[in-house]
Design brief:
The protein has 213 residues and is of the alpha+beta class. The chain is built from seven helices and five strands, in the order βαββββαααααα. The structure holds glutathione.
């Protein structure tokens, strides 16, 4: 497998899932401005949306969209319960979390991270203020769900935790004050210390530094 990724973009979620699943994939870094990948490929030739994560399977099939990729990887390693079994009620609970994180957190938090060249600066400022207005209730919802449990789905790590961890990295990066939700801080520390995750964090930090040089 090949994963087209960008350091600490949302492709980090998929890297965490791969590591937790014990699956190997070649990581190919992409410049998201030019869409040029380090292997010489224009990302748009693989994924017309020009976005990471883009996963190319060994049979050359291309899979995009975090929720789909995460469930695909989880299903490949049933021995590690990264996703509940298909058709189990808990599987829909997992999808509920994946949808919430994608729709209510990822794309709202994302506007605090991206610069949109050519977009009206006043409009950008209103959008940022809207994000700051909306996020506390959404983060509060997650913090309440984590109260008294180690992971989103209970006492076992799932791919939804990989996605939430990525979003909390972003929240810290944009200096969102997480102090009102101690459960989120404790959860973040718990995940950062996981043996599968710590090396991915270190590699992404190194790749980010290299890209900034
Ligand atoms: N709906 C997509 C969103 C992916 C996404 O937002 N990727 C961002 C990086 S975090 C990206 O590639 N941005 C560049 C662009 O949209 O041109 C998914 O779930 O995979």
């Amino acid at each position: 497998m090949k994963l087209y990724a960008s350091p600490f973009a949302c492709s980090f979620t998929v890297r965490v899932a791969l590591a937790e699943a014990g699956l190997d994939a070649e990581i190919v870094w992409v410049d998201l401005q030019t869409k040029q990948a380090a292997d010489g490929v224009d990302l748009r030739t693989l994924n017309a949306k020009g976005q990471v994560p883009t996963l190319v399977l060994d049979d050359r099939a291309v899979l995009t969209e975090i929720g789909a990729i995460l469930q695909y990887l989880g299903d490949r390693v049933p021995a590690r319960p990264l996703v509940p079994p298909p058709a189990a009620f808990e599987r829909y609970r997992l999808q509920e979390w994946l949808s919430f994180i994608a729709g209510e957190i990822h794309k709202t938090l994302g506007v605090l991270l991206i610069t949109a060249p050519g977009f009206d600066p006043a409009g950008a400022e209103v959008t940022r203020r809207l994000a700051h207005h909306l996020l506390p209730a959404r983060l509060g919802h997650i913090a309440r769900a984590l109260d008294g449990r180690s992971f989103l789905m209970g006492e076992y790590f799932t791919v939804a935790d990989a996605y939430l961890f990525n979003m909390l990295i972003w929240a810290r990066y944009v200096e969102l004050d997480l102090a009102p939700w101690p459960a989120l801080g404790a959860y973040f520390a718990r995940l950062a210390a996981r043996p599968a995750i710590a090396p991915v964090l270190a590699e992404e930090r190194a790749a980010r530094l290299a890209a900034q040089r």
